[in-house]
């Protein structure tokens, strides 16, 4: 568990501004302490203490900053590095699939609802052709940041493959998952991104599937993917829920 979880994206605050603010505060404290000890030398032990506090805060801020750089694994729940996507800082494929399997087991055992959202960037191929491969990192970073901001715990976000993300929503049925998907869609559509001086409009489509007891991982994922493809076929920038195909007459 990340000890600074409360400062991370899903914990509410980000560590970067925190490090900058505390660093600046420490600097000001140090300067004030030195100035005061020059004016009133007799009070030097008090000012030395003040300086020590300022220094401790600065060291903490620096350490926090360094950890932030060294550990892209500073993901929402402090997952081990091997489960975190280096580029987007969300869970990677292994991470999100293991979260999904765990959520499925919970749902299966306790009979609680579970939904899955598959999110795909619309026209990713065309975007790449227009902007070049170097735009990929910029777009993925901006998209994952927007998704992370718009999600809440205990929902989990991960990059499943290429331009596709998965969101696991425990205790959530399809209508609520649709609300969440809509929020994510709006968040991504609102990204103001400039690549090589050009404004780039990025949109995402979402496919929602609800876990059915006894369903296996492949079927659950395939349902979410099918809903995503439907949303993209319908023009993109929208969310669709998977609807089970009507049974043939006489089928069980
Ligand atoms: N899993 C999940 N469910 C959500 C999320 N946002 C809303 N919901 C659910 O969707 C339903 C309607 O959400 P809202 O319209 O935001 O209502 P709310 O009463 O403010 O929801 P709460 O935040 O749970 O109090 C509620 O059952 C929420 O729990 C989310 O980010 N993740």
From TrEMBL:
Organism domain of life: Bacteria
Q: Name one GO biological process term.
A: negative regulation of bacterial-type flagellum-dependent cell motility
Its ancestry begins with: Bacteria, Pseudomonadati, Pseudomonadota, Gammaproteobacteria, Acidiferrobacterales
Give the protein name, as stated in the record.
Answer: diguanylate cyclase
GO MF annotations, alphabetized: diguanylate cyclase activity
Q: Which reaction does it catalyse?
A: 2 GTP = 3',3'-c-di-GMP + 2 diphosphate
What are its GO cellular component terms?
plasma membrane
Q: Entry's NCBIfam families?
A: GGDEF
The protein's matches in SUPFAM superfamilies, at most eight in alphabetical order, are given as: Nucleotide cyclase (SSF55073)
InterPro entries associated with the record: Diguanylate_Cyclase, GGDEF_dom, Nucleotide_cyclase, Rev_trsase/Diguanyl_cyclase
Specify the species: Acidiferrobacter thiooxydans
User: Could you say which EC number(s) this protein's record lists?
Assistant: 2.7.7.65
């Amino acid at each position: 568990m990340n000890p600074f979880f409360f400062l991370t994206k899903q914990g509410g605050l980000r560590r970067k501004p925190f490090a900058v603010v505390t660093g600046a505060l420490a600097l000001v404290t140090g300067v004030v302490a030195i100035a005061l000890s020059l004016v009133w030398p007799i009070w030097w032990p008090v000012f030395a203490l003040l300086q020590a506090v300022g220094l401790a805060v600065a060291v903490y801020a620096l350490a926090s900053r360094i950890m932030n750089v060294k550990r892209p694994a500073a993901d929402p729940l402090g997952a081990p590095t091997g489960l975190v996507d280096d580029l987007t800082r969300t869970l990677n494929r292994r991470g999100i699939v293991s979260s999904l399997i765990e959520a499925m087991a919970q749902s299966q055992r306790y009979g609680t609802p579970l939904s899955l959202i598959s999110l795909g960037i619309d026209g990713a191929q065309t975007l790449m052709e227009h902007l070049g491969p170097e735009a990929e990192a910029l777009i993925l970073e901006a998209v994952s940041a927007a998704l992370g901001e718009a999600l809440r715990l205990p929902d989990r976000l991960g990059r499943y493959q290429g331009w596709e993300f998965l969101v696991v929503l425990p205790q959530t049925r399809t209508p609520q998952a649709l609300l969440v998907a809509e929020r994510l869609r709006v968040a991504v559509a609102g990204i103001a991104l400039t690549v090589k001086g050009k404004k780039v409009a990025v949109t995402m489509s979402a496919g929602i599937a609800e876990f059915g007891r006894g369903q296996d991982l492949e079927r659950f994922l395939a349902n979410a993917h099918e809903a995503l493809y439907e949303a993209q076929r319908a023009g993109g920038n929208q969310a669709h829920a998977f609807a089970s195909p009507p049974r043939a007459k006489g089928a069980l």
